[in-house]
Amino acid sequence: MLLSRFIIYSQLISGCSPIDGPKKRCNKTSKLWRTRNMAETLDAKKEEADYKRVHSFPLIRHTDMPEEMRVETMELCVTACEKFSTNNESAAKMIKESMDKKFGSSWHVVIGEGFGFEVTHEVKNLLYMFFGGSLAVCVWKCS
């Protein structure tokens, strides 16, 4: 059995918050400041939604899988991330269980934003991709 080593660092790919820290305000301008703050927050949410809409396609960062396995795994990851958009743990569980059934046991899945990892994996059994802009998915087999 051939093993390979893969090291990568995922970076959060999102815009800055409209509020970088606590801001002081006096009572006379607090209502005006809240109105501006709400407008900035709404603009930031709209920009984030637009960013996710533009980047909703899967972006493969690294893979050594055969074409057929890569396409199936990528579609499975997209389906799981869309189905469990607020629960990465459930999405990872769905991907792992499906991969174990389709391609044999010992698959591992990591889903999240802003993480680093180093894994040893079987050759031709690794997929590292982004989905929805900043959500990274890493799937590998190691027995």
Automatic annotation (TrEMBL):
GO CC annotation: axoneme; dynein complex; microtubule
Keyword Cytoplasm: yes
Assembly and binders: Consists of at least two heavy chains and a number of intermediate and light chains.
CDD domains found in the cross-reference section: DLC-like_DNAL4
One Pfam short name: Dynein_light
InterPro entries reported for this sequence: DLC_sf, Dynein_light_chain_typ-1/2
Protein's UniProt name: Dynein light chain
Primary role: Force generating protein of respiratory cilia. Produces force towards the minus ends of microtubules. Dynein has ATPase activity.
A biological process term (GO) from this entry: microtubule-based process
Domain of life: Eukaryota
Keyword Cytoplasm: yes
Organism: Conger conger
Family: Belongs to the dynein light chain family.
PANTHER family: DYNEIN AXONEMAL LIGHT CHAIN 4, DYNEIN LIGHT CHAIN
Keywords of the record: Cell projection, Cilium, Cytoplasm, Cytoskeleton, Dynein, Microtubule, Motor protein
Subcellular compartments: Cytoplasm, Cytoskeleton, Cilium axoneme
